[in-house]
Structure formats: structure tokens, C-alpha cells
Amino acid sequence: MSLIKTISLKPLGDERGSLIALEGNKNVPFNIKRVYYIFNTQQGVARGFHAHRNLKQLAVCVTGSCRFILDNGKQRETIRLDNATKGLLLEDLIWREMHDFTPDCVLMILASEYYDETDYIRDYATFYELVNG
Ligand code: T46
Q1: Helix or strand holding residue 6 (H, E)
Q2: Is the CB of 109 under 6 A from ligand 1?
Q3: pLDDT below 70 — which residues of the chain?
Q4: Between the CA of residue 133 and those of 73, 74, 125, 128, what are the distances in Å?
Q5: Nearest atom in ligand 1 to 109's CA
Q6: Would you say the pTM of this structure is higher than 0.70?
Q7: What is the pLDDT of residues 87-98, one digit of tens each?
Q8: Domain 5-9+26-132, CATH among 2.60.120.10, 3.30.390.50, 3.60.10.10, 3.40.50.1000
Q9: Which of 122, 115, 91 is nearest to 35 (CA)?
Q10: CA distance 84 to 64
């Protein structure tokens, strides 16, 4: 089964341009408690390199693009987010890395929980042991 779960976000555009609305428990499949965005990422920088114990997130590249690597400790898959109509669902115990940010990339992420550093697993060996042990 693929680790890549995407959601198509319907643009509500008219002749003036495009608009996408994100609503918790509607087109976003969880209650949204937090929104953050990553921008101005310097060339060659990769981010992430962690998993979450208990967090659902939806990642959307509002402009520009970046590449996600998802890893469940058994398989690794990659997806490029390059369209504001494509949301990547991040849930379960999945190791994630973000690479190849374009200079104009604005990566917006909706999260089901408030920020909690204790929810992060930032060591791959610990993650691997947890999912395979
Ligand atoms: C994720 C990927 C996709 C906060 O204080 N509040 C927040 O809500 C967040 C997300 C981060 N921070 C602080 C923690 C660090 O001192 O901001 C700093 C950078 O965070 P981090 O190194 O975790 O950023 P990324 O880009 O590696 O990971 C982020 C999210 O943290 C993570 O949950 O899934 O994006």
C-alpha cells in the first residue's frame, strides 16, 4: 500500500483568479488546531528528518515546489508537491524529509494538534525500532 495519500483541493475560482478554502473535518480530514508555513528556504537545505507519534497534518505547496520523502520503516516513497490544489496527508508513524525547495516555495501545513516537541521522534534508529521492533 502506498504511503502517499493526497487530497485534491477544489479551486473556487472565477474570472478574477483562484481561491481554495480549507475547512477542518470537511475537505481537511481532522480538526485544525495549528497552521504554519515554511518559506525562504535556502538552496540545498533539507528539512524534516523526524516522525510524529500522534499528529495529523496536511501539507500544501501554495507556491513553488518541494519534494517529500515518506518512510514507514519498511518502504520509502517520494512525492513532489508543486500545485496549490494538491494536499499531502501526513498521518500515522511516518518519517518525513523535505528536499529540493524552489526559492519561491511556500509550504503551508495544517496540523491537528498544537506544537508539542515531545510528539517528535527526531532519531531514525528510535523511529525504526518503534515501527519494526
Ligand atoms: C513537520 C514538517 C513537515 C515551533 O515553535 N512551532 C511549530 O508549530 C513548529 C512547526 C516549529 N516550531 C519550532 C521548532 C524549531 O525550533 O520551529 C523550529 C523549526 O522546526 P522544525 O525544525 O521541526 O521544522 P521542520 O521543517 O524540520 O519540520 C516541520 C514541523 O516541525 C514538523 O512537524 O512535520 O515541518
Answers
A1: strand 5-8
A2: yes
A3: none
A4: 10, 12, 11, 7
A5: 3
A6: yes
A7: 999 998 999 999
A8: 2.60.120.10
A9: 115
A10: 9
